[in-house]
Amino acid sequence: MTASDWKKVFNQLNAKPVVKAKFLKHCKPKDRKTGIAARKCERCGRFGAHISSYGLHFCRHCFREIAVQIGFTKYS
User: Concatenated DSSP letters for 10-74?
Assistant: First the structure.
């Protein structure tokens, strides 16, 4: 189960509190502090190629799409 899929399962278990408690005890993946799955892009939700400079938190794809709108300029 990937880092994004377990939240979908968690939403399905809201109707079953006993099963939800057991899931949280045994199956929930740990919160990531380092590595590729620690941060997600705020715009599209990708995990890799994360630009966190200036507090942006975008992946490189989204940054290239909206860089001019934010105020960044390309010099070369």
Answer: HHHGGG-HHHHHHHHHHTPPPPPSSSTTS---TTT---SSEE-GGG--EEHHHHHHHHHHHT---
Tell me, yes or no, whether 39 and 73 share the same domain. Answer: yes
Domain with 26, as residue range(s), is: 1-30
Together in a domain, 17 and 44: no
User: Collapsing DSSP states into helix, strand and coil, what is residue 74?
Assistant: coil
How many other CB atoms sit within 10 Å of the CB of residue 58? 22
- Indicate whether this model's pTM tops 0.85: no
pLDDT tens-place string over residues 40-69: 888 988 888 888 888 899 999 999 999 999
Instruction: Judge if 22 and 41 occupy the same domain.
Output: no
